[in-house]
Specification:
This protein is about 65% helix and about 5% strand. The protein is mainly alpha-helical. It has two domains: about 70 residues, Winged helix-like DNA-binding domain superfamily/Winged helix DNA-binding domain (Arc Repressor Mutant, subunit A, Orthogonal Bundle); about 35 residues. A two-stranded antiparallel sheet has the order 1-2. It is elongated, with a radius of gyration of 19 Å. The two termini are about 30 Å apart.
């Protein structure tokens, strides 16, 4: 019987802010070497290459990336957990810690953001309408 991937993802340790930054680079690159991650990360902010490699080791131990067999001298890494899975988990944690597990409170907070454009509001409205239609289908 196949294991439930959602349960496996729920058991994975949460990412620290730095691990999340490094994972963002890995997700953007896809299959990559630690040198490629370091180079791309350095374009965002300066961090010692050894620190980035240490974070990559931590991500590997936590099950967020895995080595890919290759004929190269260096191994390559591949993200195992999709960005969307981590985003949903992070959002659930944020809802719990800041909004009392109430999505409405979080949405009100987002809608009060003065940087929200009319186009973004229109898109949010379309998404809500689509969700309502989907919810009413048998």
């Amino acid at each position: 019987m196949a294991r439930n991937p959602k349960k496996r993802d729920a058991r994975r340790p949460a990412l620290s802010p730095l691990e999340l930054e490094v994972m963002d680079v890995v997700w953007s690159l896809g299959e990559c070497t630690s040198a490629q991650v370091t180079e791309a990360f350095q374009q965002k902010r300066t961090l010692a290459p050894t620190t980035i490699r240490t974070v990559l080791t931590s991500l590997r131990k936590k099950g967020y990336v895995r080595p890919v067999p290759t004929i190269e001298r260096r191994f390559r890494l591949r993200p195992v957990v999709p960005r969307e899975v981590v985003a949903r988990r992070s959002l659930r944690e944020l809802l719990a810690s800041l909004f009392g597990n109430t999505p409405r409170k979080a949405i009100v907070c987002l809608l009060d953001d003065p940087n929200l454009t009319e186009q973004e509001l229109d898109e949010i409205h379309r998404l809500i309408d689509a969700r309502k239609r989907k919810g009413h289908q048998p």
